[in-house]
């Protein structure tokens, strides 16, 4: 069956930065599944009407439509059970906790670092929409939310257990990457794609892990276009 | 075979507060294993010489001697594989990450909150030893390390993903507690045993989870002596 991923794009259609889409792309690469992407922009709500959803990622696999990045990862584990990414039972439960850490402690810190770069990476026609929706969510202007120095401090604190674990194992999930690695990588790839701001110190084990993650699965992420290529 | 746990005690021999011993006690309770404890105090190094180790927990199971709380939990999973606490493979890997979070982000915050109460809970003959070793480790006096207000702020931040997950499931590991719950509970039980300082707000899902944890396995922890009983 043909797999299609609706994937957020920026001012260049090849610039793909959504952290939630990156998790799914890495899960697809992990399972060695072929797929095509449809470049999607923030306001193209009608293009997702078939999924009864208003944001990406949306994945179609033949007649099956799945929305929400974590639900897509779970779907892929059910439909293609070899090489699980999330697992089941207590493995799944423990990666659900890790998802909370990524979304509530790490991603907000990254947002403070890259928000203004992110605005620049977005298509000009989407910037007013992005500003309006995000400023309503945060109750502050994007310029007020932007605070790279404070963001880096928060990020460093949130990554303390990640750095410690990456001294013990090559990847968070062991000798090879899986779900926990993809959840964290999605958010870090988002920041890396839109911004040249430093995220972690070069000596931090997270930096070496990120470099490894760019190379895994035939450099599925390392080959992607970033703001450096524009 | 008879199982014996060497377990840190305080100024009353029945006061047991080591976070690392509490993890093991909960793992033993989880597996329904009978065991006896040997009350041990900080300076009784010779009592552990048989284990070639100088701190607790130390567990003996017949002729088997196991040191280090996490290694003991792993041993129990191998020797008594029904009802795993840590699991294996990616489950084990993910709980190893959670251990890092507990030890590096949560326990240090708790220490700032309860350190002076902890000093009071320790046997008078051990207080000079405790002060000397901990002040050397932190490079500061215990009084300088003590900062309950800052500790509570750090704890709240570190518990953000825990609170979020506990809105989704009764326990961190799902509908019933296991390894991740015991790792976090060990540290929170340590603080709760020696101190009446508030740790989290009553409305925080972590508060309700802690109350549940006191009740599980026939109130294995809820029946334990705390500073409130002295």
TrEMBL record, chains A, B:
GO cellular component: cytoplasm
InterPro entries the record matches: Glutathione-S-Trfase_C_sf, Glutathione_S-Trfase, Glutathione_S-Trfase_N, GST_Omega/HSP26, GST_UstS-like_C, Thioredoxin-like_sf
The entry's keywords: Transferase
Pfam families per UniProt: GST_C_7, GST_N_2
Superkingdom: Bacteria
GO molecular function list: transferase activity
Domain GST N-terminal: 8-84
Protein name: Glutathione S-transferase
Transmembrane region(s): none
